[in-house]
Amino acid sequence: MITRFSAALSSSLAQRLDDHLLRSDGQEDCCFVLWRPATGARRTTAVLVDLVLPLEGERIVHGTVDFTSAYFLRAATLAETHGCGVGLIHSHPQGRGWQLLNRVDHDAESAFAAQALTLTNQPLIGMTFAGGDAGHSARVWQKHGTQHYQPLQAESVRVVGDQLTITFNDRLLPAPTATSAQQRTLSAWGQRTQDTLARLHIGVVGTGSVGMLIVEALARTGIGRLSLFDFDTVETVNLDRLLHATARDARIRRPKVDLAAHAARRAATAPAFCVSALDASITEPDGFAAAADCDVLFSCVDRPWPRHVLNLLAYAHHIPVIDGGVSVDARGGSLRGAEWRAHVAAPGRACLECLGQYNSADVSAEREGLLEDPSYIAGLPFDHPIRRKENVFVFSASAAAAELSQFITMTAAPAGVSDTGAHLYHLTTGTLDRREEGCRSKCLFGTTLFSLGDAAPAFTGRHLAAELARDSRNDLRSRITRLVHQWRRLGS
């Protein structure tokens, strides 16, 4: 039984819906859609796959709109053939924002809920398109008892592509009241953008030097829900570039994710701020499931396997991923140059592999544990990305700022511009390269894996480095506990 629900579709599919549902005569219209589930730890998302447009005579427009049983059966048969569920979307030409079901719409959808489940083995999805502002609302029809079906309203519907637009269910996710601490932020982009930002559930994968800065910025901006992912430990070598980290954190081997969560709570300006800290890799099943609950993901990782998993979430689950990184050329012990980059992986944009952020061959090596083997690393070319670990706080701050700029551009669309391409900054020349083309023609993420949701292959598994990091900290806690008990016994 689904308890929390959302829906997602690519901007290209949303445009096709607009073209069909926005009629020149101002009347209502409808069509069926195919969808696949994308299951997170707490939320299930219906990822829309394709439209089943009506044939001649399959729907009747007369101010409102009716459809025939033959149209439904054709759509349900297509859904079953492609391993999908079936959904019905209809328009409210003058509507704005989240649309609730009226009695006529309720009866039309409920009449086919049982058949949809029987024919496709997935519940019926109902959706409404608000023609006044191109907003979407959704619900899933679930069986209660033997014959009774009830709709569960979605929390939100997101349209992902060049721009991220989300229609929120105000009853389930009301816009929080802005606080006086957000006065300058509101003056920059206004209440409507702030209402969107404040209700986003954002995940930050990796809370190292770049990720910690991003967490700080998001908390101060008024983001209401943050999920943080990292299995690593604060060490002395981190202190020159990890915001908030102290020598004591290194001595007690504090988890980076706990430090980030504590800092976020102190910095937060949202009135009901919520942050969760997961001591795990996104490549582990629990980490992946928690990430699938998010609306946006920040990638602050430097290994191929997590980037591969994030790529899957961006295209199979339609969760935009804002990625970046730093590369420093310090040959001979002196600074020869540095670059930092930032980009968004999302439907219609270039994926992380096509952008050259990782090589799929290295994913297998990491999954086998080879990237934790010093002899394997030593055998890699000197300029291999996995060997290039040089970084300083200044460059981390630049990379974090670049990722945050991509995020604001994607969500706020200043001056109507939401996609300025993938950015690569060069320190020595002070220049910026931009890439605006999408994926290669045969890219798996833009074709085979696109909109698959749970049907996508599992890229998760046991993560050796994460397990070792957690075991090491647990051993330290056990030793400290034993010492405390011994000290108490001696004292008594």
Folded structure, characterized:
With 492 residues, the chain is an alpha/beta fold. Helices cover 34% and strands 24% of the residues. The protein has 14 helices and 19 strands. The strands form three sheets. A nine-stranded mixed sheet has the order 9-8-7-6-2-3-1-10-11. An eight-stranded mixed sheet has the order 14-13-12-15-16-17-18-19, with helices on both faces. Strands 4-5 form a two-stranded antiparallel ribbon. Strand 7 and strand 8 form a beta hairpin. Helix 6 runs parallel beside helix 8. The longest helix is centred in the last third of the chain and has 28 residues.
| Low-pLDDT runs | none
Spatial order of strands in the largest sheet? 9-8-7-6-2-3-1-10-11
The average pLDDT value, as a whole number, equals 93
Q: Which class of secondary structure composition applies to the elements? A: alpha/beta
Residues in β-strands, percent: 15-25%
| Distance between the first and last residues' Cα | 55 Å
The helix content, as a percent range, equals 25-40%
The largest pleated sheet is described as: 9 strands, mixed
Tell me the radius of gyration.
24 Å
Which outline best applies?
globular
What's the total number of strands?
Answer: 19
Number of helical regions: 14
